[in-house]
Each structure stands twice: as C-alpha cells, then as structure tokens.
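Hi all, a correction to my earlier message: I attached the wrong file for Ribosome biogenesis protein BMS1 homolog. Here's the right sequence:
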Amino acid sequence: QHARNKEDFANLDEWTKSEHRGYLPGSYVRIQIKNVPAEFVTNFDLRYPLILGGLRTRETNMGYLQVRFKKHRWHKKILKTNDPLIFSVGWRRFQSMPVFAVEDQNERLRMIKYTPEHSHCIATFYGPFTPQSAGVLGFLDITSNQKARFRIAATGVVTQMDSSFKIEKKLKLTGVPYLIKKHTVFCKGMFSSALEVAKFEGSSIRTVSG
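and the right structure:
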C-alpha cells in the first residue's frame, strides 16, 4: 500500500498531496500554549497568522553591548553620551543610555561627549544580549507636544557583548614646571595623592605645542 501511494502521488505537488492524505508526521510541530487570555480565543481568526518566537538561553541574559554606531544623516542634532535613547534590536525595544567612544591607535577606547558628524563611533550600553552582526536602530522619544521630526536618530551593528567594557576618559591636568633638564621636566601641583600618581605611571604626556 505504501509503495502504491508513493507511486500514485509521485507526480503531484506537496499541497495536493496534503489535501488527499493529510500532513505526514515530522512535517509539522504541535505547540501547547498555557495562560492565554480569553479574548485571544474568542477573537481568534484563522485568516491571520500567529507568529511564535523564541530565545536562545544566552539571549535571556543582560549585559553590555558594544555597537558600531553612526548618527543618521537626516537627524538634525548630534547625540550626547548618557542621553536616553530607545533601541530597536531584533524584535526587542528597550531604553538605555549609551556611552560613545572612539578607538585610539593603541586599541584603547576613549570616551567622547558627542557622536561624530559624518563617521562611525563605538556605542556601549546595557541591554539584553544580542547575536553579533545584529542591526541596531536608535530612536529619540518624541512626545506629542514636540514638533514632529525625523525619528531615527542613529543606526548601527552589534560587534561584541560582555559583562563589562573598559572605556577611558581624556583628562587634562595642569601643573607647574619647576626644574627643566633638556627633554626632562619636573612638574609640581599636578597630583593630590600618591594613589593618583600610581594611576598615571607610564602615561604619555603631550603639551599643547606638541
């Protein structure tokens, strides 16, 4: 019988086969959903598809995302570090406060106050872990009393995820030179404690004149 069925249905397409013999085991998945609101059942319409989504175990974790980020060219204003932004990543929408940075030559992340006008930067913000290379959209929260403007503030792509990232801030220190010997200078009044001195050991110092 199985051989006869196979021979009879050989020239038919899949839709016609399923019309006559039904769907074969292994060609469908049966899912049981619990705690469904009563309105869902009473208003259920077969003509509208029901989309089911799932998460991998890692994607339920929260942490810091690092994104290659760029301000949208149609957005009038530049974006500022630690200003709230609504992110659209995959099917998720959440609000977070990004910290913008640029990568120096020694692969160190240096914090910047604002997004560059026509180039990419690196944005780091807290949110649910997302697979690498996922697209990111940044929206400004526009309330009804504000004048309508282009809502997409920035676009980007996820580069990496971690529990923490090290971002360094540029610091200007002023001191008074009191002893100069050719290419060596001794400064005073630059640090206020031994701990500060230890933190800056090995740092490069550059004057305004270069």
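Sorry for the mix-up. The chain has three domains: 1-43, 62-162, 172-209.
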